[in-house]
Amino acid sequence: MSTTPDPAPVPLNGPLLHSDPARAYREMRREHGSVVPVLLDGDVPAWLVLGYRELHQVTGDPALFSRDPELWNQWDDIPEDWPLRAMISRRQPSIMHTVGEEHHRRAAMLVAALEAVNPFDLRTRTERFADELIDAICPRGTADLVGEFAMRLPVRVLAWLFGFDDEDGPGLVTALNDIADGRDHDRSGQMLLLTSMTRLVAARRAEPADDVVSRMLADPAGCTDEEIVHDLTVMLGAGHLPTADWIGNSLRLMLTDNRFAASLFGGRNSIAEAMNEVLWEDTPNQNVAGRWASRDTRLGGRLIRAGDLLLLGLQGANSDPQVRTDGSALTGGNHAHFSFGHGDHRCPFPAQEIAEVIARTGIGVLLDRLPDIDLAVPAASLTRRPSPFMRGLSELPVTFTPTPALNGTLA
Ligand code: HEM
Fold this sequence. Notes:
Layout: E1 10-11, H1 15-19, H2 21-32, E2 35-40, E3 44-49, H3 52-59, E4 65-66, H4 100-115, H5 119-137, E5 142-144, H6 146-150, H7 153-162, H8 169-180, H9 188-206, H10 212-218, H11 225-256, H12 269-281, E6 287-293, E7 297-299, E8 302-304, E9 309-313, H13 314-318, H14 349-369, E10 374-375, E11 397-399
Parallel strand pairs: 1-2, 3-9
Antiparallel strand pairs: 2-3, 4-6, 5-11, 6-9, 7-8, 10-11
Helix pairs in contact: 4-10, 5-7, 5-14, 7-8, 7-11, 8-9, 9-11, 11-12, 11-14
Protoporphyrin IX containing FE binds next to helix 11 and helix 14.
């Protein structure tokens, strides 16, 4: 097979990627094909895999396209203060960056601990946390549903699932959102996460309970406490922000698209439809870093060198015209999108279900409690956080008829 000569790489930032990513991916595909040479911050080269077929190839072959960042051929040129070091770093002893047998052992343990979550308890607890958040805003008649709801709900539920006390929740919310939004300059958020996880693991080692941490500690595969602390931290990070963005992006769709207007007045049927459409069209994890080629190979007509970094272009693959042949909706009941990844390192199935319950329940409670919710600003003025990796709203200002909190107060 011949290879296409490498065109000039595309910087992976710029206003179009944030304002109209569908168009940005379409243009990249037209000019460069399904595997696009891109430049990350500091002109660091990588490949963005936008083709659905090529992405299957990459995620389905963990030996050739490894999750091990040690393979990267750019480490010598990466400065200590490179802004993406939090996402791509050499020593990450968590499930995400282990490979082969070690990864299978860690993944099996994590899946078993998440599978044992009782879906009824999960729903009930999500309703309770959602009610608390709505109590804080409902007497006002105005709110930012991203900052005051979507960005607070998933971390509270996940912290409870792991085994944290309710009092730990607000501190974890602040730490995680500061890290996600790049505000954790003094790394105090990172430190709080690490010390909180370490304390929880030690407490459950001494006295087990019915929670994710205790189940991981009791697993016969026997991970060390340190490994469990790292996997819990990764899970909280990998779970919170995409679920928060899933909630925010789905609410935006329901508030701006007439097809979903009816559900705002009590019908819950189209919540699931809106959520599925978001995973196809406006997915939280737009691009994921990544995989590293373990030897020279060819992909989508390009020559990939050993050690090259490949970014998983999940949104690009979801809108690949080769799978969306009529250029229209596949969304309905079709779940063949790439939004949870694919292959050995895909989002674990019970984690996907947990995210789904949190998002669907949270949106349901919100629409039940505030049925006449409406956008407070023109839809066109809504902005996204500027990231080529995660796609979420900066804020979602709404108005509604003020109602008393559940404890009866109308401020
Ligand atoms: C809307 C919500 C979510 C989305 C869109 C999402 C998406 C993803 C994607 C795309 C990956 C694959 C990364 C790769 O292939 O390199 C992934 C991995 C992962 N996700 Fe999720 N995720 C979500 C929620 C969650 C939740 C709630 C949890 C935990 C309870 C979780 C835990 C994980 C873990 C542990 C991995 C790493 C798996 C591994 O490397 O073996 N995710 N997720």
